[in-house]
Amino acid sequence: MPVLLESNSVDFASIVRPGDTVTWGQANAEPLPLTQKLLEQRHGIGAFRVFLGASSFDTCRPEHADRIEFVSYCGTGANRALAKAGALDILPCHYSQFPQMMESGRFPIDVLLLQLAPPDSQGRYSLSIAHEYLIPALEHARIVVAEVNEQAPWTYGERYLRDDEIDFILPTSRALPETSHGAASAAELAIAQHTAALIEDGATIQLGLGALPEAILGRLTDRRNLGIHSGTIGDKVADLMQCGVITNAHKTIDTGKTVAGVIMGGRRIHAFAHRNDAIEFRSTRYTHDPDVLAGIDRFVAINSAVEVDLSGQINAEIAGGIYVGAVGGALDFLRGARRSRGGVPVIALPSIAGKGGSRIVASLNGPVSTPRSDAGIVVTEYGVADLRGLTLRQRRERMLAIAHPDHRGALDQMAGVPSSSRA
Known about the structure:
This protein is an alpha/beta fold. It is 24% helix and 21% strand. Strand 6 (111-116), helix 4 (134-140) and strand 7 form a beta-alpha-beta unit. Helix 3 packs parallel to helix 4, helix 5 packs across helix 6 (211-218) and helix 12 runs antiparallel to helix 13. Belongs to the acetyl-CoA hydrolase/transferase family.
């Protein structure tokens, strides 16, 4: 049986060993009463490592690097402050590789901190709003410490926990924080319109994070029998399921089920997912598996990027010399869509950055997160560039057409293709 904790009796110095790696659920799945205690008590533990997902809270700050090595697959959210301070080390790998790395011991997880929903009538604790890479971590962690939050939604998934799998439990009752993306910009609304035109009735969709994916879903209210197979889901998925647009009825696998790894949304999706067996949460091993994705007919993968060059190479990681994005799952999903019968691999992004610089570039200012050999369809507010089956010269033409008009001339010159030489 697990040891029952009180908030003032959590002693991480007796749980975490020097040299351990600790991890927890990302975004709103972070068990804040536990993570805050861990950081407060770091000096009593000694040097250890924390693996972070996308962070919604500034629990981990640069000054905490005096005892903790911070590692993450991404520089999004609150991780950006760590990256700017040089206190974040990046694990540059595909999302689909996380389970194997944890299982092989190449990236072991020693202590796992979870936020769980209370047990059901069968004694099963739910992983609530984050399952994904927590499932392989759970299989190999030496110690499992759980915040059991009375207000966390109980969700269906491939893995539940019982008392004998938990070492320590901290009971709480707190409202889950909400992820707010703000209103979509005019450019994002135009991108959403172009992208929505690529999604036909009966398609199964994967979406990334932010206001743009939510805006795209908002343009699909006239579609029928859409499906969802995604790493994340947010509030608009709940809206479209409730109004009958998302039924998953035509999915070639997991028929009738919305499949996801984590919720990144607010009260709407939290309440809708609670005890809703039409939504099933799965491990990263399943949500990002290339063979699983290839088996979904008409799979539409929609992701974003920092910048795309004129040949279709994608940088999704670094902007202005700072690690702001991730390798993440984009290439897993893009390749899955390429293999899917009738699949549509999409990268959607505004044509210019916040300071006015072009995000369609002659050469990347960061690493190649997705090679040009995997290029599919690129969408900006100025249109759609389908690069599949095109030569480099043809790709330049298509990409210039969707760049911001103010930057097209300079891009054309930097590409080394004078207008007079083009057919």
